[in-house]
Amino acid sequence: MQTSIRLLGRRRFLPLFVTQMLGAFNDNLFKTAMVLFVTYQVYSDARMELQFNALATGLFIMPFFLLSALSGQLADTRDKARIIRMVKLAEIAIMAAGAVGLLLSSIPLMLAAVLAMGIHSTFFGPIKYAILPQHLHKDEVLGGTGLVEAGTYIAILAGTITAGFITHDARIAAALVLVVAVTGWLTGRQVPPAPPINPPEKLDFHIIRASIALVSGTMHIRRLFLAICSISLFWAIGAVLIIEFPPLVKNVLTADEQVASLFLAIFSVGVAVGSLMINRLLRGTVSARYAPAAVIAMSGFVLLLHFVARQWVGDDAGELYDLWAFVRHDGAPMLILSLFGVAVSGGMFVVPLYAFLTTTVGAGETARTVAANNIVNSGAMVIGSLVAFGLSAADVSAVDQLLLVSAMCIVSAWLAWKLHCACE
Predict the structure, then answer these.
(1) I need a surface site. Which of 16, 73, 279, 367 has the fewest CB within 10 A?
(2) What is the pTM of this model?
(3) Exposed (0-12), middle (13-18) or buried (19+): which is 202, by Cβ within 10 Å?
(4) Residues contacting residue 183 through CB under 8 Å, at least 6 positions apart
(5) Measured between alpha carbons, how far is 33 from 35 in angstroms, rounded to an integer?
């Protein structure tokens, strides 16, 4: 643990760490502010709210499915630090458009910015993991991956909490996303050079052909196949949960925007805690041995969340609980415990699998391996979003959809167990 923290004092790690944190903060500040605005100010129908959240999630994820092959080729055959600078410069323009959308309350413009941020994250995502084996020593990779994952979720925490408090003032939100984008570009310029391991190759801009080739070239390796399937199912679960949270808070728990932000924040900090805990348990060794137990525990906590939500007594007066009224509710401690348990166990599950992806293949193939993982992940998340959309259209409540999430965790545990056995 101390070795991992010491990485924060190294230029080969700190600028990347700060840059990815700022990017995650901005993503979630903008997305959360938009979702809370639409959920609480535009719609007054639980089904429409779920469907809008599913649409926004799907738009953000779609570029990962379509463009990850190209992003992986770029990251493995070009200087990763240079790509970071270009991507962070593009973020400034994207957030300028998003800021205008917030100021004008333009849903189409805000959704366009969400789609563009998905493209931004598609090109940045493979780099933030693939650059670690290039800049860190072998025994530092797991710790560095855990710090990146923990930092990401701390940034998500900060972004979601901030969004809950500034949603009422679009001017503050618009100014803040622009300031953060500029700061991220400045820190990204400090990332040390990371030239390609292999000679530059001609890029394949045929995204369908390149995606099929990339996934088939990775998934035939049994250990990578099992790791990617496990991670993908985890993110499908995460997509369903994130879609459900705001409508669940508003319509079942009868609570306001700050409580919805608190829900997302608890989930984020829980994953960060789980990310650090698993690094301590594994002591720097990349292994999936705790993954099956972690995701089974996650299934149990999801079930607990379902039963607590089903027994919840809302405000009879038709008012929404504010943050302090919610915290004082008799059911709040168990609800918060179950949500935190879901997140901690999820972090313990997924972090070693990401470290496994970047250490199983050669240094010249890590970005494309992560990109292949992103393609399958995004496909699974889109399917999760469509399932949530379809179930809401069929009048299946957010509370009852939690039962499906719990069942999906059991399948993920089985895949993780197969991976552990394959690696022994």
Answers:
(1) 73
(2) 0.67
(3) exposed
(4) 22
(5) 6
Token pair for residue 171?
């001017």
Beta bridge partners of 321: 255
Residue 104 lies inside a defined structural domain of this protein: yes
The closest alpha carbon to 273, from 157, 133, 163, belongs to 157
Reading phi first (left if > 0) and then psi (alpha if -120 to 50, else beta), residue 150 is in alpha
Distance CA 418, CA 31 (A): 36
**How confident is the model over 401-423, as pLDDT tens digits?**
888 888 888 888 888 888 777 66
User: Three-class SS of residue 138?
Assistant: helix
CA separation for the pair 55, 389 (Å, rounded): 8
pLDDT tens digits, one per residue of 319-340:
788 888 888 888 889 999 998 9
Structural domains of the chain, count:
1
- Count how many Cα atoms sit within 13 Å of the Cα of residue 136 in the half-sphere of its side chain: 32
Residue 295 belongs to domain spanning: 9-196+205-423
Structure tokens belonging to residue 405: 């999430």
Q: Taken in order 100, 101, 105, 109, is the CA torsion positive or negative?
A: positive
168 within some domain: yes
Q: What is the pLDDT of residue 9?
A: 62
328 CB-contact burial (10 Å; exposed 0-12 / middle 13-18 / buried 19+): exposed
What digits encode the pLDDT tens for the residues 343-372?
899 888 887 777 777 666 666 666 677 777
User: How far lies 400's CA from each of 4, 242, 263, 383, 405, in Å?
Assistant: 40, 15, 18, 18, 9
Residue 1 has pLDDT above 60, yes or no: no
